[in-house]
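Blinded run. Sample ID left blank on purpose so nobody reads anything into the name before looking at the predicted structure. Input follows.
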Amino acid sequence: MSTTSWGIIGPGKIAKKFAAALTLVEGARLGAIASRDAERGKAFAAGFGDPRVYHRYEDLAADASIDAVYIATPHGFHAEHALLCLRQGKAVLCEKPMALSARQVREMVAASREHSAFLMEAMWTRFLPWMINVKRLIAAGSIGTVKYIRADFGFLAPFTPSGRLYDLRLGGGALLDIGIYPLFLCLELFGRPASIVASGVLSPTGSDETCHAVLGFGEGRTAVISSTLACQTSLTAEIAGTEGMIRIPTPWYKNDRYEWCRSGEDLQPVVLEPMVNGFEYQAREVMRCREQGLKESPSLPHVFSLMMAETMDEIRRQLGVTYPTE
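Blinded prediction complete.
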C-alpha cells in the first residue's frame, strides 16, 4: 500500500485519538493540521512528529501534498469544512454526524461526486472487530431472524450553554453527539425505519438533553434507542432473534467482546483482539478505498449516512429541535 498523507482540521480531543491511531496504520502519516488557534495547533503538532501547522483551514485543503483529511471540528461546521476539502479533490473522513441535516449531507455527497473525491462518515463502530463478528453471526442465522434491538448511550454533562453539547450553533444535543451510536446499530442491522416515535427533554438552549425513540421496521421488527446528557446509563446493547440473542456489555459501542446464546442455552462469551485505539480501522478503510479508486466505502456508503441524517431529522422534528442553518 502506498503512503497516505493525512491532514486534520480541528485539533481537539477526538483529533488526538485519531492522530494516535495513524501511528498504528501501515502507510499512514500525519502531514498537516489546521487550527485557528496558533498555540493550540503548535502544541498538538509537537505531540505527533511536528507536521505542518496551518492557521487557515483553506490552506490545508489546498495543500497538494495532503491526500486525505479528517474533519474533527464541532458538528455545526462539518459540512462547511468537508466541502472545503472535497472541492480541492481531497479524500474526506468526516467525524460523525456527517452534518446537521440531510440537506447538508446531500450537498456533501454532491460535492464528492462532482469533484471525484472520496467521502465517508467517521462512524468508527462500523469497522470494529466486534461489529463485523456480530454481523457474521447474524448472517449465519445463529440467533434466527432478528426482531428486536435495544441500545443506549448516556452520561452526565453539566449544562454549559456555550459548550458544544448544548449550543445549537455548534450542533448541540444528545441525539447527534451520542444517540447516533444506538441509531447506527439499528439502521445497520434493520435498514430504513418505517415508523418513528420520539420523545425527550429539551435543555434551556433548545437542544435535546434526552432523546428516546421507538423505531418500527416492518415484519415485526422493532428497536428502542435512548441517549441522554442528564445521567449515566448502562451503555449496553441487545440484539434478540427468534432463536437466540446477543448482548454487548459496557461500553457496547467500542468493545472487544460480546456474549451470545441460542434460545434456552447459557450465554457464552466471545473475546476478540484487544482494541488498542479503535480509530485505526476506519483509517484503514479510507486508505483501502483510495487504493481501489473508490469514492465511497461499500461498508459505509453515502446512502447509509443520508439515511441516518434523514432519520435524525425526523426524530428532531418530533422533539422540536431546530438548528440555525435550517
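Unblinding after everyone has recorded impressions. The chain has a mean pLDDT of 97.
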